[in-house]
Design goal:
This protein is an alpha/beta fold. It contains 16 helices and eleven strands. The protein has two domains: 194 residues, Glycerol-3-phosphate (1)-acyltransferase, CATH 3.40.1130; 93 residues, Arc Repressor Mutant, subunit A. The longest helix is centred in the C-terminal third of the chain and has 22 residues.
Length: 347
């Protein structure tokens, strides 16, 4: 399904360090949450080595999404639940899975980004995993940060026009009908193998040992009270999210959107656009970003990005030979540019 929509690109900041992770460790993959395709992408990329377990929201508890998520290793979380018994059961489930060395995928943002940028993280599942951790007796908890990005996010129009809550408020009938339409589109894409959504990218960072992190900060974890643990866990989690931010890949469409946002209102012709595109790529590479280019060619990647964005009406080609942003799709262009601005803006 995933490869029917996307060309999949994968990067490693330090592949050798991933090979050193022991099977005796409890492994957690921590990723940004760009789209609900993240679940499939991370599962797909790790499927040759392991089966993941990850929490998904109640939105996905409908046919056929529920069956798809469960087959991929998902369990369903009622994020807004105040039921103490439910919270304790969820906490214990996550702890037992961790103790059994079941790898977890965690998406700390908890919801899709409405503007394309990284959102404020919450570390509830991470607190469950680390609650009973004892550096002297417990298996080490190793967190592998992942940055994901896409040439096209399936939910982008909904995210730009409204929040996830507004989408759900339209009722079950709307959600079911949207799922049916998406399912038919999926079948169509799989049969034709057009990969009309461009690139889906993931970039794996260096593993971070929780035991080593505690040791380096001289933290006696079992001796801390709840408030102290919360403070240290937030520090640990935010450091990991900073790594995730730096790992977010730079795909062609996002680069094109960034370039056009910086260009004059009159737009750029093909030659000027290519020069600016190459300059943006060079700047991202200078910051060690994972840049995804079709055939390793800036010119070919730009052509593909132009085709994808022109087809969706995000940009227009004027009679004078210039490419400009469609004013009606300004928010959508900004949504994609936002995902990589930290790689391109002045430090």
């Amino acid at each position: 399904m995933l490869r029917g929509f996307y060309r999949v690109a994968i990067g490693f900041l330090d592949e050798a360090s991933l090979e050193k992770v022991s099977s005796d460790d409890s492994v957690i993959f921590m990723s940004n949450h760009r789209t609900n395709m993240d679940y499939l992408l991370v599962t797909y990329l790790t499927s040759q080595r392991t089966m993941l377990s990850f929490g998904v929201g109640e939105w996905s508890g409908i046919f056929p999404v529920r069956q798809l998520m469960r087959s991929a290793g998902g369990y369903f979380i009622r994020r807004a639940s105040d039921d103490l018994l439910y919270r304790r059961a969820l906490e214990r489930y996550v702890q037992l899975a961790t103790e059994a060395r079941v790898p977890h995928a965690i998406f700390p943002e908890g919801a899709l980004s409405p503007d394309g940028g990284l959102q404020q993280a919450r570390f509830g599942l991470l607190s469950f995993v680390t609650k009973n951790f004892n550096p002297a007796t417990s298996p080490d908890i190793v967190v592998i940060p992942i940055g994901t990005n896409y040439d096209r996010v399936a939910e982008d129009i909904n995210m730009v026009r409204g929040s996830s809550a507004e989408f759900r408020s339209k009722g079950k009938r709307f959600v079911v009908w949207s799922s049916i339409k998406f399912g038919l589109r999926t079948l169509f894409e799989m049969l034709l193998q057009r990969r009309s959504f461009g690139y889906a990218c993931a970039n794996f960072g260096r593993p971070v040992s929780f035991r080593d992190w505690l040791r380096s900060h001289e933290v006696d974890w079992p001796a801390l009270d709840r408030a102290q643990r919360y403070e240290w866990l937030n520090r640990f989690g935010n450091e990991l999210m900073a790594r995730v931010l730096e790992l977010i890949p730079v795909p062609p469409v996002a680069t094109l959107c960034w370039v056009l946002q910086q260009s004059p209102a009159t737009g750029l012709d093909k030659a000027a656009l290519l020069a600016s595109f190459k300059a943006a790529i060079a700047q991202a590479r200078a910051r060690n970003a994972f840049v995804v280019l079709a055939r390793s060619s800036e010119q070919f990647a730009l052509q593909q990005a132009l085709e994808l964005t022109l087809l969706r009406g995000m940009i227009r080609y004027r009679s004078n030979g210039n490419y400009v942003i469609n004013p009606d799709k300004q928010a959508l262009v900004a949504y994609y540019a936002k995902s990589i601005e930290h790689h391109l803006e002045p430090a």
